[in-house]
């Protein structure tokens, strides 16, 4: 059957966005009204005594701020098959699994068609702005996208990661065609049961369609870096497959073999060309444009916890542009990148006022109210102030009301009357023993400073995480590093000292000086350790598409800590404050 691909009207999408953002306050009121009306019969809302009121003031007065923990009893009932109107008017039939790398295990959040629609609205908005600046021709996207395992919950609901729910939606393919970015790999590869085999075949499809590839993408930038690190290992095997037109025996999934056999024909010329290109590169610099000469840019989320991969991504991308994708979560999309000319380090995301109702808790107030044990008072979308940091609160069309997402953003400016946000960090503190407070951003800064020392020896930190070790007195910070080669003990001791020095939080430095916190410990792990951690999360139902390395391994991450501990090859203690 022929699929109907709707023509994409760039100007119309941009005009609509301009109109909506000029009137963001009214659009927010309308969006809230619609969400509350559609779900008025939901037990959760009924119990809160809104009595049909849909204005923001009544909503704030009656509906409490919640986290996932408070909603869990309701979500559990849904998962177990209670089909009454619990959180939404129409019963929920599908669940998303968030990546859950912060808490150690994936969380269930409700998914419905409205969330799919908002996903498409975000995709279309950012594509319109992106394509105005950097047009892609009709071609293909080499998209490193993967489905998680889809399964049924105890009560018979379909469950998978949010990205999987998007990829599986019947309208997804059509929508991506309209955005001129259909994936060059067949569905069997995207939905394959084995991530390693899917990745290999994505690379192979990219090479087969190399002239047509207009962009290289993934949901999160980590997957792109991971893919090209893998390419470094398997490029000769890929060339052999192309030369002979026969898929390597390492691909064992029958459906993938069948689908790939339709694409793979003996092509010695292409194999020779790729081989020559690979051998001509210096340390793989500029690999992506070399392989895909018509690619216009590399696209994926590159901010927040993806920043540590930017350096490597730039290396592979050479002169090719890096464009960060949009801002959202399994709980719902929030904002689109409508300023694609900005490099990822300066990227902002403009909130779409019609895809959810958004509130913002000022971080300063959050700190004050914590001690007073009162609820913080969030402000509305159009009331935020430039330069201030906020924690985001989401109300979405899939049964989340005043839900604290746990992300901290900074308002950088306004697009008409909607704020442009910079992602700052997850709100939870990462490293704290007593009066010290260090976030994932502080850890990133420290790791970047210390990684510069090994960069001199042409080494790189492939990935990292941290842990608070209080098993002996005084407690101390532990940083785990995986590096791509051998570094001398002297150099690594220096890195360890540098890490310790780079946590400049006054609570930390004063505690270190008085030995209330012990010397920081750098533990170097075997190559491949972070791959094992990724595999562990995949086993729990996570998808590579949404994967984020946990930046702190706490008590809820028992297995991850075990993997790390079993793979430590060297460890160093800081002498910075001796
Ligand atoms: P998940 O839990 O898998 O649904 O991932 C959602 C989380 O990923 C968000 O709450 C953010 O912490 C992070 N995230 C999503 N988009 C971005 C972005 N554009 N920049 C930085 N972090 C992001």
From TrEMBL:
Gene Ontology cellular component terms for the protein in this record: cytoplasm
Entry-linked InterPro entries: GH3, GH3_C, GH3_M
Gene Ontology MF: a single term: acid-amino acid ligase activity
The organism's place on the tree of life at top rank: Eukaryota
Residue ranges occupied by any GH3 C-terminal domain in the UniProt entry: 441-553
Residue ranges annotated for the GH3 middle domain, each copy included: 349-426
Tagged with keyword Ligase: yes
Keywords: Ligase
Pfam families in the cross-refs: GH3 (PF03321), GH3_C (PF23572), GH3_M (PF23571)
Family, as annotated: Belongs to the IAA-amido conjugating enzyme family.
Protein's name according to its UniProt entry: Jasmonic acid-amido synthetase JAR1
Protein species of origin: Acacia crassicarpa (northern wattle)
Native organism taxonomy: Eukaryota, Viridiplantae, Streptophyta, Embryophyta, Tracheophyta
